[in-house]
Each structure stands twice: as C-alpha cells, then as structure tokens.
Amino acid sequence: MNCRIIPLTAEHWPALREIYREGIATGYATFETEIPEWERWDRSHGQDCRLVAVGTDDSSNILGWAALSPVSARRAYQGVAEVSVYVAAAARGLGIGKALLRALIEESEAQGTWTLQAGIFPENAASIALHKSCGFREVGIRSRIAKLGDGWRDVLLLERRSSSVGL
What we know:
Blueprint: E1 3-7, H1 13-26, H2 38-44, E2 50-55, E3 62-70, E4 80-87, H3 96-110, E5 115-120, H4 125-133, E6 137-148, E7 151-161
Parallel strand pairs: 4-5
Antiparallel strand pairs: 1-2, 2-3, 3-4, 5-7, 6-7
C-alpha cells in the first residue's frame, strides 16, 4: 500500500487515538491500558519527530503514526529517544510501519538524535521484525519490568545507533 508521511498535528488526534486503542487491545503493544487525553500524550512526546502515514489518495485516511519520547531530561541523553510506532489494524502487514519507522529515523537524525531505543514485548514478533529490518539490534530482556493487568511482563530492549550523528 502506498502512503505519504506527513507531520503529526493535534488535528490528527482522533484518528491516532483510535489506532492507539487498537494497539492497546492486542495486549502486545504497550503497558498502557487507557488512552490518554491529547494534552498528556502531547507532553510525554518530543515536539519534533511526530509523523503520520496517510493514504496517497485521501490525506484524511490515517494509516498509522510514529513519534519519539525523550528517555531522560538529563542533558547527556538529549540525543537518545524512545520510539513509538502504531499502525491501524486494517493497514497492518502492508509496509506502513516500515515507511513510518524509516521516516522517523531520517527525521530523528536531522534533529540530532544518535540513539533510538524501543521496548517491545517479546510476543510482538511483527514489531521486533520491523525494528530489526530498520537497523535495530537486540540489547537484552528486561525481565518482569512491569505489570500489565495482574501479570508481570518482560520487555525486549532494542536500539539503533546512527551512522551519521554523534560520531
């Protein structure tokens, strides 16, 4: 499926919220169990590197989104960010995630980010494969890092170091 990648704005939030809800429903995408309000989501993500994938024939058809969150407020980590990529259920398996992640990598490097990291549930094979196809490598497992519902969950930590930023 062809798509265009454009900057994410507050006007996209209703569609993004639904895609996020679909991700939460899988039980494999996030520890979140409720959709935050726009204001909380906006504060928790960096102001740069926010992207949406839209259909080539209809820019109101939001197929997925990607954004970065800072990993720390400490100055030493200003070039390190955590990746979020979500694809609408109806658009999964069509290359939308790869288009978003590639564009996010390019945009992050233009903004001076040298390390991207992703925490992914080990059961989320599609997300792990996506990240590896875009140059992420496994760092390790964070065992029983947090609870989702009543059960402890592991998280696979992946990272990608820029070959052009922070050398």
